[in-house]
Amino acid sequence: MTPAKRLLDILCALGLMILLAVPFSALLLWLLWREGRPVFHVSERMRAPGQPFRLWKLRTMRPAPPGADSGVSGGDKADRITPTGRFLRRSRLDEVPQLWNVLKGDMSFVGPRPPLRQYVERFPELYARVLRSRPGITGLASLHFHRHEEWWLARCRTPEETDAVYARVCVPRKARLDLIYQRRRNLCLDIALMLQTAAKVLPGRRRRP
């Protein structure tokens, strides 16, 4: 990561934290009243091979028994997503706590989505290349493959099927886009991807027919 990219991350993270302090605090209180504890969901992700970190999100699912919440989310977990959680995911408000991860340096604003350890260990050569870029909140793959990924995984009915589809379909396609970003990355591209992400999640955005 270049010093300029890191400076952009710090300035944007601090700016958004200040801007969102009051509305996000109100959201936390509302979630605490409506959903109860825990409000946050913390899970292990990989910053690079052999370098795990704790990723922060707002909780969008009903808590699962210990050991039953591993792997990516597919149709097998759909019945655990709360109505509030669906709104948080659709608006990407569940990812606001990742500003803390950006400020700490675990993540950048733009980069590949941070993977689970099991996939980094299953595809070590692929992720050794992909994770040369700092993981990000958004990125080329997030913008252009996320809906396809949701469609594929929503059809899965068991954890085993979800894992197989994610490994066979999603991992290589996302990695291809992440590596395109890696070859072309610069501050202008980062800013463009951040603005595209904001345009997708801001309320009132007009949808194409």
Q: Strand count, sense and closure of the main sheet?
A: 2 strands, antiparallel
Low-confidence stretches: none
Rg to the nearest angstrom? 17 Å
Helix content: 55-70%
Content of β-strand? 5-15%
Task: Summarize it.
This protein is 56% helix and 11% strand. It contains eight helices and four strands, in the order H-E-E-H-H-E-H-H-E-H-H-H.
In terms of topology, how is this protein built?
Layout: H1 3-35, E1 40-48, E2 51-58, H2 83-91, H3 98-104, E3 108-110, H4 117-122, H5 124-130, E4 136-138, H6 140-154, H7 159-184, H8 187-201
Parallel strand pairs: 3-4
Antiparallel strand pairs: 1-2
Helix pairs in contact: 1-3, 5-7, 6-7
Question: Any overview of this molecule?
Answer:
This protein is mainly alpha-helical and about 210 residues long. It is about 55% helix and about 10% strand. It contains 8 helices and 4 strands, in the order H-E-E-H-H-E-H-H-E-H-H-H. The chain has helices at about 5-35, 85-90, 100-105, 115-120, 125-130, 140-155, 160-185, 185-200, and strands spanning about 40-50, 50-60, 110, 135-140. The strands form 2 sheets. Strands 1-2 form a two-stranded antiparallel sheet. A two-stranded parallel ribbon has the order 3-4. Strand 1 and strand 2 (about 50-60) form a beta hairpin. Helix 1 runs antiparallel to helix 3 and helix 6 (about 140-155) packs antiparallel against helix 7. The longest helix is centred in the N-terminal third of the chain and has 33 residues, at about 5-35. It is globular, with a radius of gyration of 17 Å. The model has no long low-confidence stretch (mean pLDDT about 90).
